[in-house]
Design a protein that fits this description.
Distance between the termini: 23 Å
Largest sheet: 8 strands, mixed
Strand content: 35-45%
Strand order of the largest sheet: 2-3-4-1-5-8-7-6
Structural class: alpha+beta
Number of helices: 5
Shape: globular
């Protein structure tokens, strides 16, 4: 199916749903510490704290809420804004997979079967009517990280079928290099590097949705590892282990959220001074020539959050 030109990348991200173990604590971090605009949206008999960030929003639910796709803490699902959710799902070839129902803030919503969207929990919803926001410390969502079992399939669905643009692709690889030395009292020292040996690897595809990206992370490594040292600053092997372990346990799906900041050291220090449990207290090199820093998942009720400082992209 060919997507009409006027529909290419035409859906904004209405919101990303976070499932947390402590709604009040997450509310405090997002609203009071990070300064995101807080509004309350109704859903059935609930009042859902929702935070504007860039052109989209973060909606916070308690783990176990029947509105959610999963019964565990983390980034639960994303909702794409469309005036007519049913027509949008049909245009993308997904209507047969859709379950209609009441959405957030009295919106109409269609939830798509994850089998049709490469494991990612996706919904179409009528727009929430929120205006763009920037807290000063937080500019927008940089990306939503997805533990992927098949990046080629993800690109087929989100680019080829749904019409979103591919922002970039990259390969992350950690290698081990051994050095031999030959030292003689007569001839001096000679050093030789052996061939590098891969110890961790990820294939990454960034697909633009609204003013952020979906970051599909697919494990690849001849040695295949699920090794993770929780609570310590990561590296490529660590990241590969986290993604491989997630897919083995849960299948493909949303893994983490990253917020874009103009000053990563300031925002990490600000969180630390406010008593947040941190993995990083200073930015370190990350994808797309960025500096990144992670907050411990316990700070946001089980949601893995990190921050990104990098040159801005030209978002449509």
């Amino acid at each position: 199916m060919k997507i009409p030109d006027e529909m290419m990348s035409g859906y904004d991200l209405a919101y990303a749903a976070l499932a947390v173990r402590d709604v009040a604590a997450a509310d405090h971090v997002l609203g009071d510490i990070l300064g995101l605009d807080r509004i309350v949206l109704p859903h059935q008999d609930e009042q859902v704290p929702t935070f504007g960030v860039g052109r989209t929003a973060l909606a916070v639910f308690p783990v176990g809420d029947p509105f959610l796709a999963e019964n565990r803490a983390g980034v639960d699902h994303i909702a794409l804004a469309a005036p007519d959710p049913e027509s949008a799902a049909e245009a993308c070839g997904l209507l047969d997979q859709g379950v209609k129902g009441a959405g957030l803030g009295s919106a109409r919503q269609v939830a798509i079967d994850r089998a049709a969207t490469a494991g990612l929990a996706v919904r179409f919803t009528t727009p929430l009517g929120l205006s763009g926001t920037n807290s000063g410390r937080i500019e927008r969502i940089d990306h939503l990280g997805i533990a992927s079992a098949d990046n080629q399939l993800a690109e087929t669905v989100f680019h080829g079928q749904m019409g979103f643009a591919i922002e970039s692709r990259q390969t992350d690889m950690e290698v081990r290099i051994a050095v031999e030395s030959f030292t003689s009292d007569k001839y001096g020292a000679v050093y030789r590097n052996r061939e590098p040996v891969p110890v961790g690897g990820l294939r990454v595809s960034f697909i633009t949705v609204g003013d952020c990206e979906l970051e599909f992370l697919q494990n690849f490594d001849p040695g295949h590892t699920t090794e993770v040292h929780h609570g310590t600053a990561g590296n490529t092997k660590q990241d590969q282990g986290a993604i491989a372990g997630y897919v083995m346990r849960y299948g493909a799906g949303l893994h983490h959220i990253a917020l874009k900041t103009p000053d990563i050291n300031e925002v990490l220090g600000h969180l630390y001074r406010h008593g947040c449990r941190m993995i990083d207290v200073a930015g370190r090199p990350g994808s797309r020539r960025s500096l990144i820093g992670f907050v411990h998942p316990s700070t946001l009720g089980g949601v893995l959050l990190h921050f990104v400082e990098r040159p801005d992209l030209d978002h449509a």
